[in-house]
Amino acid sequence: MLIRYKKTFEKIAMGLLSFMPTEKDLKKLQFTIKEYETEENLQLFLWKEEDIIGLIGAQMNDDDSSIMIQHISVNPSHRYQGVGKRMVKALKDMYPDRAITANNNTAPFVEKCDLC
Fold first, then answer.
1. In the chain, what's the furthest Cα-to-Cα distance?
2. How many CB atoms lie within 10 A of CB 77?
3. Which keywords does the record carry (predicted)?
4. Is the model's pLDDT at 98 over the cut of 80?
């Protein structure tokens, strides 16, 4: 299930975000987490089963018509089990009136999720 990011999950979130190719540098990673904590239009969600095993970060567009997935990451030991697709579906279910879009980094994965 998706849960909203809280500061208490910072280390877990940073660990999961570090699997994104664009977030390898520690300073960049810290900047990204700070953006999710301070920017009103950015939301970070963690995926919890027994443990937290994934995250999805989204930018809520001002016109309330779409959500752009900025980051999506799954713990390597839980990959290829449909976790990423379940996160995208849960986000879509949470915001049924909004279209799900992707940036250049997340588009290849989001396209596989068949959100049409």
1. 37
2. 7
3. Acyltransferase, Transferase
4. yes
Helix axes 26-38, 10-17, angle to 10 degrees: 120
What is the C-alpha radius of gyration for the chain, rounded to an integer number of angstroms? 13
Sheet containing strand 66-74, strands side by side: 2-4, 42-48, 52-60, 66-74, 99-102
What is the rounded CA–CA span in Å between residue 114 and residue 28?
31
Q: pLDDT tens digits for 70-97?
A: 999 999 999 999 999 999 999 999 999 9
Backbone phi, then psi, for 65, in 5-degree steps?
-100, -20
